[in-house]
Amino acid sequence: MDPRLKLAAIAIIGFLSLNAQWKMLALLTLLVLWWGIRVRLSLFSTLKDMRCVVLLLCPIWGIRALSAGMYDATLVCWRIILAAYAGISLMATTRTWEIRAALRWFFKLIPFVPEKRLSTMISLMMRFLPMILRQSNEISDAQKARGIECRKNPIYRMVRFVLPLTRRTFEDADNLIIAMEARCYCEDRTEPELSHFSRSFRLDNRT
Asked: What contacts 187, CB < 8 A, 6 or more positions away?
């Protein structure tokens, strides 16, 4: 599928899920799961990679449940998980340059918007998500090897997980900035262009 269609589909799903109740969310969830099955994305591996997202949502769910009720808190976390799974499906089936080119194509339609800068920033952010998921798995395995699961205090376990993950993420971001500056990266560069909308998008790009 053309990456512009993928981004449009994810944007529509995210917009519909903003104020959706459980029936609409269930329908959107089935649609996204069907999409993942069609692209042969392993549901078990994806949910395993989303452990850090679920862990970060636990305090959000607790605070929301105390202020607005358990039903509203569950819907909020459900929407975030749905958006995260859709984004992972996009990144697993689309190259980084295709995402950047699709974003640049959309931003060109908006006047007075630096499309190259915005597309680069968003594509880099999406590129970092798999790295963060991989690092979260490494930190989780390291903590299991040190027996941190024996700690009964959930706040202690969360702090010991979030702090090294945040530190590694900022270190990788600094290394990326240094690498881009060393290669004299700038916005005025020749970017690959997308072909016309076609069902044989990947075949057209290979040829």
From this structure: 114, 116, 117, 120
Q: What is d(CA 38, CA 108) in angstroms, rounded to the nearest whole number? A: 31
CA 52-56-57 angle, to 5 degrees, is: 115
Cα(37)–Cα(31) distance, integer angstroms:
10
Going by the DSSP 8-state scheme, the letter that residue 188 receives in this structure is S
- Which residue, 136, 4, 24, is CA-closest to 79? 24
Helix, strand, coil tally for the chain in percent (to 5): 80, 0, 20
Tokens of 150: 């024996």
Quick: pLDDT tens for 63-79. 888 888 899 989 998 99
pLDDT value at residue 205: 46
CA–CA separation, 130 vs 44, rounded Å?
A: 16
pLDDT, tens digit (0-9, with 9 covering 90-100), for 80-132: 888 888 888 887 788 878 888 888 888 888 888 888 788 878 777 777 777 77
Closest C-alpha to 13, from 34, 33, 3, 28: 28
CA distance 111 to 194: 20
Phi-psi region of 69 (alpha: psi -120 to 50; beta: other; left: phi over 0): left
